[in-house]
Amino acid sequence: MPRLFARAAVMAVMAGSAAFAVAADYTGPLFDAHLHYNEEAWDGKQGPHPLDDVLARMKRNGVRAIIANSRPNDGTHALSSSAQTRAAGVTVVPFVRLYRNRADYSNWFRDESIHAMVQAELARGTGSGPFRGIGEFHLYDSANADGPVARKLMQLAEEKQLAVLAHVDDKAVDLLMAHTASRGQRLRLIWAHTGIGGAPVARVDQLMAKYPLLVGELSYRPGLTCEAGKLCPEWRQLLLKYPDRFVIGSDTWVNQRWLYYDELMAGYRTWLGDLPADVARKVAWGNAAGLFGLSQP
Ligand SMILES: [Zn+2]
User: Fold this and answer.
1) Average pLDDT, integer, range 109-124
2) How far is the CA of 167 from the centre of ligand 1 (A)?
3) How far is CA 97 from CA 16, 101, 104, 198, in A?
4) Is 137 exposed, middle or buried (0-12, 13-18, 19+ CB in 10 A)?
5) Could you tell me the distance, in angstroms and rounded to a whole number, from the CA of residue 289 to the centre of ligand 1?
6) How far is CA 237 from the centre of its chain?
7) Measured distance CA(56)–CA(49) in Å, rounded
8) CA of 76 to the centre of ligand 1 (A)
9) What is the Å distance from ligand 1's center to 252 Cα?
10) Is the model's pTM score more than 0.90?
11) Cα(128)–Cα(254) distance, rounded to whole angstroms?
12) How confident is the model at residue 43, as a pLDDT?
């Protein structure tokens, strides 16, 4: 066999077996549906992660849109109004964060001044247009979902068709949904981490069936990936059952998440590549884009 031909034959066999045995990574656009640009990432002056740094990280990872929510909201205003963001090809979907500082994490659900702050931010809007959602907020004790401000904000979200980004357990999903006029049938609740405490897949399935607009965001979700960063079988099945209901996010809640932003996005691309191409594109981009009426990048 001529030497050149032999080499081509070997390469063809390798390519064939690779396609058969290992799915290629997903290469399309990403929508980072859980992004914070907090004050410790950028103090409004220099760093350690000024705007050009975080935008470069998004750009080189093919992140074409983000749900921005920041403590305080200044970080989101900075991202929304900067010409650099537009130049990087990143669309900002701004959410009102409920926190001015860390103390607000454990008190927002009963603090009237937070309700007033949300109203003021909604009235103000951003350089990328009106706020489209509220959150992320946390409930470390699900009973606090019944706090007076939590109740009012869920009603406001449904009335104004704002999405909410909620870091809560499965019990609190039911409690929050119950506050709205539709009892959760019309509230677009994005469940941060789809239950960071690891609610069983059967329970996630039950909530997805119960609330037609519930969306699961998958950062930090326990049990999602198995060997070689691929989806665990029961999660693969759930994503295939609800191909329109899951999204991905970075959750840059501490600066370390910015440092590893490349690895986080590469990790998503690995398991997305394991799904049928149309489902991968929905989870990576289309589901979040559809929620906010974004066109294809
Ligand atoms: Zn977060």
Assistant:
1) 97
2) 7
3) 49, 10, 10, 24
4) buried
5) 19
6) 20
7) 10
8) 14
9) 7
10) yes
11) 24
12) 74
